[in-house]
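Pinned message: reference record for MoxR family ATPase
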Amino acid sequence: MPSSIDDCAAGLLAHDYVAERELACAVFLALRLQRPLFLEGEPGTGKTEIAKTLAALLDRPLIRLQCYEGLDMASAAYEWNYARQMLEIQAAKEGQRLSSDELFTRRFLIPRALLQALEMPGPPVLLIDELDRADEPFEAFLLELLSDFQLTIPELGTVSAAAPPIVVITSNRTREIHDAVKRRCLYHWVGFPDAARELAILQRRVPGAGEALARQIVGFIQGLRGIDLYKLPGIAETIEWSRALLELNALVLDPETVHMTLGVLLKYQDDIAKVQGSEAARLLEQVRVATHG
Ligand SMILES: Nc1ncnc2c1ncn2[C@@H]1O[C@H](COP(=O)(O)OP(=O)(O)OP(=O)(O)O)[C@@H](O)[C@H]1O
Ligand SMILES: [Mg+2]
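Predicted structure (tokens):
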């Protein structure tokens, strides 16, 4: 368990996660206060990764619940094993006695991610990923879990966590998450990194890209984020582009290579059309001036 914000930032860094100080502080406080951490922000900026990094850093198992439209309690928390119940009812008909109470006991319950997270002996990191994709009513299911680290199963009673799991919730903000959920969490907005942090991330994640190329990549992408595009590239794209450029044995950015590889950075034809040609040339010139002093 980290003892300070600096300690927390250093721990994350040791696992190749370069956190801005505000995020390190939010993580530190979430751990110390045992509150869920709610991360909202741009796509590809390290929200999911923080949960994975925390699991590695604290040496805890990671339990991941990927949210989607239509996600319900049966898929997220627990489900009664109807098949097994049916079999036992059948067996009971053939001789043994079986009361209906017995059908709703632990052995007929199939635990899913949320229940698993509560019942693990060593508290895991529980990642509830992309909550904005789930339907709004699903959020209500989470309230008891997030405030008391427990789950009430009507037929069975309340299951409480022996030790609270470390909960990370992420959202891409395709819709607002209900205040009741947010209130139970510590909130942090994960934005795009500044140039210095993006360079540090690149040096950690793609060490093969030399200093000169890495600086040019970061300069170009930072410039790109200043253009009015439908979908701006995140850190994930920066990393991917660097790997692509290495595959192409690029030592520096040149117009031809940029032209060929824009699809690694931009995933909408309108965005690509906007950047290709004169915009790309302008950004390249900016980068050239900045990196050659
Ligand atoms: N601060 C960081 N330090 C190191 N690597 C990072 C950082 N932020 C992002 N990355 C890298 O960027 C990639 C994308 O991160 P991640 O998948 O966590 O993004 P996300 O915010 O969850 O995106 P999405 O909203 O699309 O799910 C990962 O490969 C991760 O390693
Ligand atoms: Mg994610």
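Pinned by admin. Summary line: The chain has three domains: 5-77+112-190, 79-111, 195-284.
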